[in-house]
Amino acid sequence: MTASHQPDSRLAKLRIAVVDDNAAMRGIVRSVLSAFGIVAVYEAADGPSALEILRAERIDMLICDWKMKPVDGLTLVRTLRDPDKSPCPLIPIIMLTAYAEPSKVKEARDAGVTEFLVKPFAAEDLYKRMQTIVNRPRPFVRTKMFFGPDRRRLATGYQGPERRDDAAPLS
Questions:
Q1: Domain range holding 43?
Q2: Which of 40, 61, 74, 168 is most exposed by smallest CB count within 10 Å?
Q3: Burial track 105-131 (b if 16+ CB lie within 10 A, e otherwise)
Q4: Could you tell me which residues carry 4-aspartylphosphate (predicted)?
């Protein structure tokens, strides 16, 4: 969000869960979300606590760290994307992490993360990812090996052996 933009009123209505074992980072994210006009922010220090919140509250979006204990963020994402174990398998998830390696981005994407953002982060980058989730949601797909948001951002016409012909879009 830049100084010339007003907060998006659709974002202000969101109920966000922030999961990070670092209380200071949760506070920073809460402050940034507050600047976006978001008041319904729930905090959890770990995966199990996040699951408790997600079972008790209607949460619209999750922002989580990767490196946490006893359950890391990637395991939390995989649990949330399992329709048999999750209270909300379709929830949009932003992975906010210090990991920047392309292999980590791919691993998170393949686990079902909706958006990926590296720490330290700019408020504008978080805002853009949240707007993308709200304004241009990606359809969910289910294959034998994956359940989550469609990992393809652009229609590239891929025709190779890994083409997901059996992918069933979910909405």
A1: 9-139
A2: 168
A3: bebbbebbbbbbbebebebeebbebbe
A4: 65
